[in-house]
TrEMBL record:
Catalytic activity: D-ribose + ATP = D-ribose 5-phosphate + ADP + H(+)
HAMAP family linked to this entry: Ribokinase
Assembly, per entry: Homodimer.
Location relative to the cell: Cytoplasm
Pathway(s): Carbohydrate metabolism; D-ribose degradation; D-ribose 5-phosphate from beta-D-ribopyranose: step 2/2
Coiled-coil ranges from the UniProt annotation: none
EC class: transferase
Protein name: Ribokinase
EC number: 2.7.1.15
Originating species: Micromonospora marina
Regulation: Activated by a monovalent cation that binds near, but not in, the active site. The most likely occupant of the site in vivo is potassium. Ion binding induces a conformational change that may alter substrate affinity.
Length: 316
């Protein structure tokens, strides 16, 4: 794809991962064995964690690029159009001939909880060549990579550092070498992903952040939905509460969080302030249906702007 914006070869944030179509249906309850649940009309929109994050960063005012592959099919073109419309650099979206674009099947229940099954398209998974080709010509302040991608492209990206700030997201692929976590400046996971990595659900999100930091990342952020987020870095640790908001659909809330967090980190915003902005972005998202919502007001924490953490905040 070409970059319709005419931007140069340097962006604020590059997102490396997957783009797919979200097939969403709202249901009164999940189908029970042997029964059929009647849902709303199906919607089909551009999605995928990295795509959602890139759009969030672009709508937050940043220069964002996405490295991903899609099929050269109707869904693939729908995805590239959505990215272009959002202002995301699409130069490194590869349309794979004769491949089917992946899809996420999403059920949303009345409480706003989303249940997601990802139908992967093996032919569109990123390769080492994709990483080399894209990063050789693209300058960036921060790069965000999905750690559940095949290990070869992730290893290539982490071993050949192309950005001052490297952020990892999701539970690592089982074949990814654990030592590579030490290459991360920031690891961002939700509390369920943290439990999967640590093989325990004991303790608070702040406990999980501290335990994950011992695996190698310099900074760890653990999101906790309506409870906000916990973090630890070399300066200290703390928590950031989330505002109380009505929940319509949780799809994409974590992606909005990470897209905004990554952009602020690329702009050298202090971590606690960046997390506060990200928490508000995620909270804003759950009040709307779908993964992409109008840009919320740019919110900053009221504290100091000297890089200090929010160590005095209690988890709520």
């Amino acid at each position: 794809m070409t970059d319709s914006s005419g931007a140069g070869n340097t962006v604020d944030v590059v997102f490396v991962g997957r783009a797919n179509i979200d097939l969403t249906v709202h249901v009164p309850h999940r189908a029970r064995p042997g029964r059929t649940a009647i849902g709303s009309p199906l919607t089909a929109n551009a999605g995928g964690k990295s795509l959602n994050q890139a759009i969030a960063a672009a709508r937050h005012g940043g220069r964002a690029a996405l490295i991903a592959n899609v099929g050269a099919d109707t869904w693939g073109y729908q995805i590239t159009t959505a990215l272009t419309d959002a202002g995301v650099d699409t130069r490194h979206i590869r349309l794979v001939p004769d491949a089917t674009t992946g899809a996420a099947i999403i059920e949303v229940t009345p409480d706003g909880e989303s249940y997601i099954t990802l139908a992967l398209s093996p032919a569109t998974e990123l390769t080492t060549d994709d990483i080399h080709r894209a990063t050789a010509s693209l300058g960036m302040e921060a790069v965000i990579v999905q750690l559940d991608l095949p290990p070869e492209p992730v290893t290539t990206l982490l071993s050949h550092r192309r950005a001052p700030i490297v952020v990892g997201n999701l539970v690592p692929h089982p074949d990814l070498a654990p030592r590579l976590l030490a290459e991360l400046d920031v690891l961002v996971v939700n509390q369920h992903e943290a439990a999967a990595i640590l093989c325990t659900t004991a303790g608070t999100p702040l406990d999980a952040a501290a335990a994950l930091q011992r695996l190698g990342p310099r900074t760890v952020v653990v999101t906790a939905g309506p409870s906000g987020a916990a973090f630890t870095d070399p300066r200290g640790s703390g928590t950031v509460p989330a505002p109380a908001v009505p929940v319509v659909d949780t799809t994409g809330a974590g992606d909005a969080f990470l897209g905004c967090l990554a952009l602020d980190l690329a702009h050298h915003t202090p971590l606690s302030d960046a997390i506060t902005t990200a928490v508000h972005a995620g909270s804003h998202t759950v009040g709307h249906s779908g993964a992409h919502t109008p840009t919320p007001p740019h919110t900053r924490s009221p504290g100091r702007n000297d890089g200090s953490t929010l160590g005095s905040r209690e988890w709520k």
